[in-house]
Design goal:
Blueprint lengths: L1 H14 L2 E2 L4 H4 L5 H11 L2 E2 L4 E2 L4 E3 L4 E3 L4 E2 L4 E3 L6 E3 L4 E2 L4 E3 L23 E3 L4 E2 L4 E2 L4 E2 L4 E2 L4 E2 L7 E4 L4 E5 L3
Parallel strand pairs: 2-5, 3-6, 4-7, 5-8, 7-10, 8-11, 9-12, 10-13, 11-14, 12-15, 13-16, 15-17
Antiparallel strand pairs: 1-4, 17-18
Bound molecules: coenzyme A (COA).
């Protein structure tokens, strides 16, 4: 019985469009650079040769997630893409641990049936442009674009797109500074 469960789990891990601590037969590969790169290149839509996806990070629907050059994804980071919307992290984006990205919202406007039966609103892609820096524990909601070289403060909840060369902090994240030459 247990042997069969282990075998089924192995098949699931091998074929699923996810990477995460609950996908043990592939997750161990993140501890070693060569196996990490091979796994990530096979799962993600795009995974640059210099990107690093560290053990403890999590990605759902990897086939709609792109990670650019020099991007390091740290433990407890969560990427929730889906079949309709992408998460694109461009080159040289920096981020702390535990940043969360979500491309969809559950529907909640009907009162006659439980939320769980209402499905989803249309998903919206997330784009983080070249050179941005996202502080630890930030949450990036559906449809957000974070502009080139923008800075997002630790723990911020980003509900609206953030322009290039600006610093945004808080919940909801507000621009507190614009960087000029
Ligand atoms: C945003 C950040 C970069 C500082 O930027 P800054 O332009 O130097 O901002 P300041 O320190 O001058 O603060 C400006 C105001 O924003 C507030 N603020 C700063 N960071 C904040 C944050 N993360 N959330 C909410 N408010 C914040 C300050 O309290 C200050 O408010 P006040 O004007 O009412 O006093 C920094 O606070 C931060 O959050 N860094 C992320 C650290 C991190 O996650 N590191 C992980 C390594 S990748």
């Amino acid at each position: 019985m247990l042997i069969k469960e282990i075998y089924n789990k192995y098949l699931f891990c091998k074929n699923t469009d996810r990477i995460g601590p609950d996908i043990p037969f592939t997750h161990w590969k993140l501890h070693f650079k060569s196996s990490m790169t091979k796994l990530c290149k096979s799962k993600f839509k795009h995974f640059s040769g210099t990107a690093d996806f560290r053990a403890g990070a999590y990605a759902v629907h990897c086939s709609n997630i792109s990670l650019g050059e020099n991007v390091v994804i740290r433990p407890s980071t969560m990427f929730f893409a889906d079949e309709f919307a992408e998460i694109i992290i461009e080159d040289n984006v920096m981020m702390g641990a535990s940043v969360h990205f979500y491309v969809n919202n559950h529907k909640f406007d009907r009162t006659d049936i439980p939320l769980i039966e209402q499905g989803y609103y249309p998903s919206k892609s997330i784009l983080v442009k070249e050179g941005a820096w996202i502080g630890a524990n930030a949450i990036i909601l559906p449809g957000i674009t974070i502009g080139r070289n923008a800075v997002i403060g630790a723990g911020s909840i980003v509900t609206k797109s953030i322009p290039a060369y600006s610093v945004a902090v808080g919940n909801p994240a507000k621009v507190i500074k614009r960087l000029t030459e």
